[in-house]
Specification:
Blueprint: E1 4-8, H1 30-43, E2 47-50, H2 60-67, E3 75-81, H3 87-100, E4 105-110, H4 121-139, E5 144-147, E6 152-155, E7 170-173, H5 177-186, E8 189-192, H6 197-213, E9 219-228, H7 232-242, H8 248-257, H9 264-274, E10 281-283, E11 286-287, E12 300-303, H10 305-317, E13 322-326, H11 330-340
Parallel strand pairs: 1-2, 1-13, 2-3, 3-4, 4-7, 7-8, 8-9, 9-12, 9-13
Antiparallel strand pairs: 5-6, 10-11, 11-12
Helix pairs in contact: 1-11, 3-4, 4-5, 5-6
């Protein structure tokens, strides 16, 4: 089975040697994040997630433009925050970036608020569905005449087009009912945060049914951390070391600073952590300790090369088509995963025919 294997560049100030202990050498910057992406490109990862946060780190769109001529083959999964965009301008921006990258752009749709505002989950995700519809139509070269609850737009497509002439793939995640409805209507790749495999299979079955009811199909992605070492004992020791200087109150403060700290997905990560064993393992190779000091994806695949490979293959069998991985520090763990696991994986960039967005 061939899956897309991707890495992560810590644009949102999320890189540490010890979780909860800021290190100026690992702080988000052009140079530091550039080096992570170029490392992943050199090793042959298929894609790299460029996250976005209003208050944290550096701007990911400007960063992606800077990285376009410096990378060779890796795609860039650019997080686009729906609460902060004007659709026609973003369509031109995305088409321009895709040309600069030679067709290597993919888009991670983030159903964000506008900085300083708070919109309830249902309306916020409905707004994101409308934005995805209009954005995809413009990127596909179609005129838009749309009168929605949030977006009113009558406009021809921009002259500038993506290299393929079509919209890049939309990656999207969320576990609330409104988020799932939005994903079923507009996503190409539904992203899941780490969970035990039966739960992953249950969510996939639910999303398959929701998408089919709209005449659509989804691919599925897994977003987690990874800790791989030559032996399982060494990997578990590395996990313990990562948390060895964490103050629990500081970890709580880090989680609460995130804009998604109250989401259904974050709540599920907390449940997973609370149900883990005394060392934080939800199952033998799924460690929830990362979630003690970050919001979002809060678990890591931990083990020796064969064990990490086996866990990925287990998830592939459960229906995962793409993996977005990261580790601490990100460049160092990228190197370890690339040497120990990546050569054993049959991997390739995700290709699919994107379904129309249903509004």
């Amino acid at each position: 089975m061939s899956s897309e294997i991707s890495w992560f560049s810590a644009l949102c100030d999320d890189d540490y040697e010890f979780l909860g202990q800021p290190d100026t050498a690992l702080q988000s910057s052009w140079e530091h994040c550039r080096n992570i992406v170029m490392t992943a490109d050199r090793y042959g990862f298929d894609n790299v997630l460029l996250p976005s946060g209003y208050a944290l780190g550096i701007d990911n769109t400007a960063f992606a433009a800077g990285m376009a001529p410096l990378t060779q083959q890796i795609r860039m999964l650019l997080a686009v925050r729906c609460g902060e965009l004007v659709v026609p301008q973003v369509a031109r921006q995305m088409a321009t970036l895709d040309q600069m990258m030679g067709g290597r752009l993919t888009i991670n749709i983030i159903s964000s608020d506008i900085p300083g505002e708070t919109v309830e989950s249902g309306p916020r995700y409905r707004r994101s569905t409308e934005i995805m519809y209009c954005l995809r139509e413009l990127l596909n070269g179609n005129a838009v005449d749309f009168d929605g609850d949030f977006i009113q737009l009558k406009i021809d497509p921009p002259r500038i087009r993506t290299q393929s002439g079509k919209s890049p793939l939309f990656y999207f995640g969320g576990l609330s009912p409104a988020a799932k409805e939005c994903a079923a209507a507009g996503a190409d790749v539904f992203l899941m945060w780490p969970d035990v495999t039966p739960k992953v299979e249950a969510v996939k079955a639910e999303m398959d049914a929701m998408a089919a009811a709209k005449g659509r199909q989804l691919k599925y992605g897994w977003r987690s951390h990874v800790i791989v070492r030559e032996t399982e004992d060494e990997a578990r020791a590395a996990a313990r070391r990562l948390l060895s200087k964490l103050d629990d109150e500081e970890g709580k403060a880090i989680r609460q600073r995130s804009l998604d700290s109250a989401s259904a997905g974050v709540a599920r990560q907390a449940e997973l952590r609370e149900g883990a064993d005394d060392e934080g393992y939800a199952d033998r190779h799924l460690w929830t300790g990362v979630g003690r000091a970050r919001s979002g994806a809060g678990a890591a695949i931990v083990g020796d090369p064969d064990q990490v490979l086996g866990k990925i293959r287990e998830l592939e069998a459960a229906g995962m088509d793409a993996f977005i991985l990261s580790g601490y520090p990100h460049a160092a763990e990228c190197d370890l995963f690339a040497r120990y696991v990546l050569p054993e994986l049959d991997h390739a960039k995700l290709e699919m025919d994107a379904s129309p967005v249903v509004v």
